[in-house]
Amino acid sequence: MDFGAIFQAAFALMVGLDPAFLAIVGLSLRVTLTAVLIAALIGLPLGAALALARFPGRAVVIVCLNALMGLPPVVAGLVVFLLLSRSGPLGPLGLLFTPTAMIVAQVILVVPIVIALTRQIVEDLWAEYRDHLRSVGLEGLRAIPTLLWDGRFALATALLAGFGRASAEVGAVLIVGGNIAGYTRTMTTAITLETSKGDLPLALGLGLVLIALTLAINAIAFGASRIGARYAG
Amino acid sequence: MTAIDRRLLLAAGFYAGLAGLALAQAPAAAPPATTAAPGETRFITVSSTTSTQDSGLFGHILPLFKAKTGIEVRVISQGTGQALDTGRRGDADVVFVHARAQELKFVEEGFSLERKPVMYNDFVLIGPKGDPAGIAGTKDIAAALVKVQERAAPFVSRGDKSGTHIAELALWKVAGVDIEAKKGPWYREIGQGMGAALNSANAMGAYVLSDRGTWLSFKNRGDLVISVEGDKRLFNQYGVMSVNPAKHPHVKFDDGKLFVDWLTSPEGQKAIADYKIDGQQLFFPNAQQAGA
Question: Where is each PBP domain found (chain B) (predicted)?
Answer without folding.
Answer: 36-267
